[in-house]
C-alpha cells in the first residue's frame, strides 16, 4: 500500500506488542494471522491510499467517501464487515479565544484499526502513550485500541470545556464591577458563546456514538473492558452537560451585560434630569426678573437676599427629594 505521508504501524499478537514502525506495505501480511491485531495511521491520505486499504480490509465505499470528505459530523456507521468512526479532537487557546477542531476517522474491523487524520494536531503519540500504559487490556484487541482513541478524544473535550469554564468565571467576576464592560469584553463574550455552540456540535453526538458501541458491539458489551468504555461514556455525558450549562451561562451573562447597560443608562438619565430640575428653579426665577420686571424689594437689599434665599431653599428641597428617591 502506498501513501502520501509517513504513518505509524503496530502489531499486537495475543495481547502483546510484537512489532511497530514496519512499512504499511507489510500490513496485509499480518491481517490473517491468528490472534493478530494491526493498527496503522494515515495522515491526510489520498484517495489512492484509501482505495488500497479498502481492497485489503473490504471497506465500504460510503465509509471511504466519508473519510475523504471533510467536516463530517461525529458519527459511528455500522457495515457488515466493519465500523466507521468519525471524531474531533479539540484544542482551545485561552489567551486568544481560538477553538481548533481536528477531524479524524477510523475504520474498525475485527483484526485491524485504521486511523485517518486530517492534520498532526490530532496527537497520535498521546494515543500510543495511553496504549502503552494499559497493556494489561491489550488482550481485548481492537476494542483496546478503540478505547485509547476515544479516551484521548474525550479528554481533549474535557480540557476545552474546563478552559472555557475558567474564562466564564472571569467574566462573572467582572460582571458586577464598577466599569461597564467595554467593546473588547463584549466581543470576547460573544466569541465565547460562538465557540460553545460550535463545540457543542462536536460533543453532543458523542453520547449516541459511544452508546451505540454498547448496544451493537458484542465484543465490548460482553468483556472485562466494558467498564473502561463505561468510564468514557460517563465522561462524554459530563462534557456534554457541562457544555450545555456553560452555553446557557454565557447567554445569561450577555443578557446581564445588556440589562446592566440599560439600568446604568437610566440612572444617568435620572441624574441628568434631576440636576436639570434643580438648576431650572433658580434659572426660572432669575430669568423672569431678569427681563426688567421689578420684584418685591427690588430696590432694597432685603429683597435681593429674600429672592436668593427662596430659590436656594427650593433647590435644596429638590436635591433632598431626589436623593431620597436615589436619583442622585
TrEMBL record:
It comes from the Bacteria. It is a multi-pass membrane protein. InterPro entries: CorA_cytoplasmic_dom, CorA_TM1_TM2, MgTranspt_CorA/ZnTranspt_ZntB. One of its GO terms (cellular component) is plasma membrane. Its main location: membrane. The keyword Ligase does not apply. The chain crosses the membrane at residues 272-290, 302-322. GO terms for molecular function: cobalt ion binding; cobalt ion transmembrane transporter activity; magnesium ion binding; magnesium ion transmembrane transporter activity. Belongs to the CorA metal ion transporter (MIT) (TC 1.A.35) family. This is Magnesium transporter CorA.
